[in-house]
Amino acid sequence: MSVRIIDDAQSTDDGEVQKIRGISDVAQETGLSTHTLRYYERIGLLRIQRDHAGHRVYFPEDLRRIAFITRLRQTDMPIREIQRYFELVDQGPASEPERLNLLLRHREAVQAQLVTLQSALEAIDTKIELYGGSGQP
Amino acid sequence: MSVRIIDDAQSTDDGEVQKIRGISDVAQETGLSTHTLRYYERIGLLRIQRDHAGHRVYFPEDLRRIAFITRLRQTDMPIREIQRYFELVDQGPASEPERLNLLLRHREAVQAQLVTLQSALEAIDTKIELYGGSGQP
DNA sequence: CCTTGACTTCGAGCACACTCGAACCTCTAC
DNA sequence: GTAGAGGTTCGAGTGTGCTCGAAGTCAAGG
């Protein structure tokens, strides 16, 4: 994966090294399948550049976006809302208040999830103890 | 909902009062839809008695089972595994070790979920702070 | 030149957990 | 005895988030 067409080889202010990746590398690193990566792109969560052969070329920026998408998915944010979030991102800085809002609302949801999950875990533990199970002492 | 046909009006040892419920009461109380309650029965998670009119009659025991099913669903146990669990329950006490095992394994999964969720929450909080958001101080 | 293999697009298919609708039944109240 | 509410069964439909397969392209190695 060596790419030269890309003129936009940005070097970030912290002197980050540009490691450009093909889709299977990225699949490896992120734990997502190539299918899923392409799917995310199809539905507009990602916009990935192509090399001269038309192959996808992932920049560190893309990897960071993928990582964040993964976090949002792990907390069950619906794809639609993630789409909304990245629409806002792609609209530039003017949308920051709305993005913040979206994230704050989502955080509430995640905290609620945590509460539900913890109380369900307690219920399960109670049941386990009922079976005389080795609950953590 | 007054029922007399049911000869099996068990009074539990702690003198629990028999409050027998129709499906819509139960839907109300549990937050599940009547559709879902019937669905759970179809797939074998519940076996609910009928009154003389063929209407479902829920006993406290059934409500407790429903509550536990809900806990398992809240923690993303797949329906298949919940089916398995209640197959074991319905097989009587001999299956208790296996039930315990199933629950212990599920607890592991839930704890993993909690860890994932918490670390994703941190990531989201970090992003929120990046937006200058009012994270909890 | 030819094979190999990793990539491309596109539409279709799948698994899961419900969710709904049609057609029918039955109790209660008037 | 008829209306209406609320139940019944059954099969089919829905939404979400992937997941897959077919058919084609491209560049490198032998």
From TrEMBL, chains A, B:
Residues 23-88 form the HTH merR-type domain. InterPro entries: DNA-bd_dom_put_sf, MerR-type_HTH_dom, MerR_fam. The keyword rRNA processing does not apply. Transmembrane segments: none annotated. CDD domains: HTH_YyaN. Pfam families: MerR_1. GO terms for molecular function: DNA binding; DNA-binding transcription factor activity. Gene3D superfamilies: 1.10.1660.10. It comes from the Bacteria. Keywords: DNA-binding. This is MerR family transcriptional regulator.
